[in-house]
Amino acid sequence: MESAISTLVTHFKTFAGKDGSSSTLSREEFRSLVASQLPTFVKNSSDPGVIDQLMGSLDENNDGELTFPEFWQLIGKLACKHGGFSQ
Amino acid sequence: MESAISTLVTHFKTFAGKDGSSSTLSREEFRSLVASQLPTFVKNSSDPGVIDQLMGSLDENNDGELTFPEFWQLIGKLACKHGGFSQ
Fold first, then answer.
1. In the UniProt record, which is one GO cellular component term (chains A, B) (predicted)?
2. Region B20-27: what's the mean pLDDT?
3. Rounded Cα distance, B55 and B64, in Å
4. Chain A residues with beta carbon closer than 8 angstroms to that of B8
């Protein structure tokens, strides 16, 4: 499990680091991560509306950036859906 | 990322399924998962007090069982610590 957790952390940092600050994901970094890393779990990610809706539901402090804990909520929802667990 | 998420879901189900219900972790299943899957991220997991404290902090509805979303909170905290992110 530890390597799977490290994989998720490493990918977050890779995409978050594109615009200098590697501790948050901008909307573009988030779009690029979802499109390349979550092609099956997030349908129609090429639709800007899907990204806006996801980002809006996660960006708790509405600063246009996703912190790791905010991002982790999305991964948790996807994991719940993938595992067939109620949320 | 998707395979890492699947790994976490699969491991949860493997340990949760030991006592029949594969949708929640009993305390013993949780202890066994932490000891074998999170040996580096959770220090002193052989100490029952560590498991009790973790379980207590996660088991939001205090039913002695951890649902996947409750368990996901722990993984998120460990991922934050591992990634050096503030929580």
1. extracellular space
2. 87
3. 8
4. 1, 4-5, 79
